[in-house]
Every structure is written in structure tokens, then in C-alpha cells.
Amino acid sequence: MAQPQQSAGAEAEQPPLRVGMVGYAFMGAAHSQGWRTVGRVFDLPRRPVLAAVCGRDAAAVRAAADRHGWAAAETDWRALIARDDVDLVDICTPGDSHAEIAVAALAAGKHVLCEKPLANTVEEAEAMVRAAEEARERGQLAMVGFNYRRVPATALARRMVAEGRLGRLRHVRVTYLQDWLVDPEFPLTWRLRKEHAGSGSLGDLGAHIVDLAQYVAGEQLSGVSALTETFVRERPLAEAVKGLSAAATGGTGQVTVDDAALFTARFPSGALASFEATRYATGRKNALRLELNGERGSLAFDLERLNELSYHDGTESPAHAGFRRILVTEPEHPYLDAWWPPGHGLGYEHTFVHQARDLVHAIAEGRQPDPSFADGLQVQRVLAAVEESAEKNSVYTPIAV
Ligand SMILES: NC(=O)c1ccc[n+]([C@@H]2O[C@H](COP(=O)([O-])OP(=O)(O)OC[C@H]3O[C@@H](n4cnc5c(N)ncnc54)[C@H](O)[C@@H]3O)[C@@H](O)[C@H]2O)c1
């Protein structure tokens, strides 16, 4: 992980970074936590200011602004990106609006943070990359929000792989299991319609695990063989939506995305990978699990125990070798020098604090933040290859470069 150049007392050397956020529900609340907290924990070269938040309902967005600490409220994202007191636009809306908002915000001279998946299609993601490359020449930077890279244990896993502790990788095994769709009466929210979400479990959970697997392994997938399925094809129409929950109205509608996506894949190094993304894993709430097996050792991570990393050092004598638990709370571990004493663990929301911290440093130092829009496009190409393979009876499908 690129370490920012920390300089104690550097705060206020540069002007504040004024943030305007679009969308204030699940991710909007999480990003608000990140922007509010980051400057209180980390030394930053620019101080984030929660300048304005945007929704579509005037009363609801004003209430969200007050709850989450935003100074102003807007009801049209075009007005938000036109504001002189906004330097960075943070996009926390469903995928159908990512491309339009990001391209317009970059054209308006703003930096951009965009939630994952970068877009709903490869074509939209390509347009976003073109806009980001042009903007970069003007000094504006763009990043996509794959926050699971910012769990200290996953960042440590990447560091250990890069140090060669696992040797040549043979297997990368990743699953992302949730269960909020098990009930066939669960309503038809935007996540279940292709025109809003692009795809289902694939773009939602699969995008995360493709990015995380590539980030930890340090290389990009070259091809996939896939199966997808939609188990429940018709659901009650949705009324109020909150986070992953929703209330039903009368009538039903079609589910137009996948419920589950399973795929195997190859890395150019020869390592094999397997992925499973589903919202039907009864009893599993947010079980993102990653295991890597190399010639010299193995690593295993489970998001439901996110302060821990399991490590097997295969070079030790078999007499006493075995998986051991690294409690990832030491100041030597990624991000942890600014937090609590060892053993006082972190949680889900801290990934958004770390995301804000990394982005602020990159902008202040004028360097490209990771993951870039180009990285987001590459993940989109993997998702497209998965869909193509699944449509063709799982035929092995190379990832477009
Ligand atoms: N990083 C993660 O762990 C993670 C988790 C969940 C969702 N996401 C991603 O975050 C994005 C948003 O998901 P969510 O769960 O927050 O959805 P959500 O339904 O909870 O919230 C969406 C928000 O966008 C607003 N919105 C929609 N269209 C708008 C428009 N045209 N103008 C202004 N506001 C608009 C809605 O009013 C709402 O506030 C998606 O891309 C999703 O894939 C990421």
C-alpha cells in the first residue's frame, strides 16, 4: 500500500477539501462517518469539510444533512456540482447515475469519489475513464470506492503476499455470502432491477471480491468460466427502502438481475481462483471470506472477524506449523498507528475513514489515488466476461484488456 507522506502539523498548510455528497442513505451515511471522523484521527494535509449533501426530497435531505453533519442541502445533483464551495463530489447513488454524475462533476472541475461498482456497463465505465484521464491533466483526481481494501487485515494480507511470504500463489478462493433475499416475499428494490443496478449479486458483491482478490494477489484476472442464476423471478413491488430492507406495496414485478454468481478464473501467474457471490446463503449476513494458498504459506480472512488474519507459514517444521491468528491491531499494521491501543479492534465503518484518509493524501500530494477509475473499468470487464460466460454455458471467456 502506498503510504502517504505524513507530516505532523501539516494540517492547514493547504486549503480545506470541501466535499459535496450525492445520496444520503446506506453509503451516504457510511461516507459521512468517514468524512466526519478522518481529520479527528489522522494527521491530514487538507481538512475535509462536509459542505453540501444532495437528495431529491427537500425535507428528507435537510434532515439527513442535520443528522450526518452536512452544512447545506441540495435537491438536484447538478446544483451540487455547480457549487463554488465544493471541491470533491462523492457519489453514493445507485449505479444508474454514476456515469452521468461523475462525468459532469469532472467537467465542472471537481475531484470525484464514486461508489462501486464504477458503472452499470463497460461502455459507461469507459466514458468515465476517458473523463478522468482528461480531468487528471487539469489536476483533478478520481477514485472508485472499493472500501474492503481499507480493512487493516486485507491491507496486511496484500503486504505479506507482496513480501513473498506465500511464495508463488496457487489458489485464491473468495466468497461473499449474504441472505437478505432468501424470503421470496422480500420486495423488489432497485438492487433487483437491471436498469438501476446493472446486475445483481454479481455487480454488488462480485465486484467487491474481484477487486479484493486482485488487490491482495497483486495481479489481474485473465479469464473466467461462470454460472449465474435468478432463483426468484417475481417479487412484490417495493415502497420504503432502508439499507438492505424494504416494505412492500401492492402488485408484483420482475427480477431482472442475477441472484447468485459463481465463477472460476485464471491469473496470468498460473494461480487458479474461485468466486461465489450470493444473497441466498441462509444464515450468512456479510460473510466475505478470502483464502490464498502459496508454495510457502497460506492466508485466510473473514470480514465477520475483520480484526484477524489467519497465517500458516509452510516453511516451519511440520512438528509445530499450523494456522495462527494475527490480531491485526498493532501500530505496525496498516492504518492502525492512529487508532486505539493493541487489541481495541475496528469495525466496518472504519474502512470509510481509511478511504477518506487515502483520498485526501492523494489529492494533497497530486498523485493518482487507488483504485482509479481505470481499475474500476477493469473490474467491470471481469463482470462482463462473467455474464458472457454464463450466457454461453460457462465457456471460458478471456477478460478484455
Ligand atoms: N462499499 C460498500 O460496501 C457498499 C455497500 C452498499 C452499497 N454500495 C454502493 O453504493 C451505491 C449506493 O448504494 P446504497 O446502498 O447507499 O443505496 P441506497 O438505496 O441506500 O441509497 C441511494 C441514495 O441515492 C439517492 N439517489 C438516487 N438517485 C438519485 C439522484 N438522481 N439524485 C440524488 N440522489 C439520488 C437516494 O435518494 C438515496 O439517498 C451503489 O453503487 C452500491 O453498489 C457500496
UniProtKB/TrEMBL annotation:
Keyword Oxidoreductase in record: yes
GO MF term list: nucleotide binding; oxidoreductase activity
InterPro entries documented for this protein: Gfo/Idh/MocA-like_OxRdtase_N, Gfo/Idh/MocA_oxidrdct_glycsds, GFO_IDH_MocA-like_dom, NAD(P)-bd_dom_sf
SUPFAM superfamilies xref list: Glyceraldehyde-3-phosphate dehydrogenase-like, C-terminal domain, NAD(P)-binding Rossmann-fold domains
Domain (GFO/IDH/MocA-like oxidoreductase) ranges: 156-299
Ranges where the Gfo/Idh/MocA-like oxidoreductase N-terminal domain occurs: 17-138
Keyword field: Oxidoreductase
Keyword Oxidoreductase annotated: yes
Domain of life: Bacteria
Name of protein: Oxidoreductase
Taxonomic source organism: Streptomyces davaonensis (strain DSM 101723 / JCM 4913 / KCC S-0913 / 768)
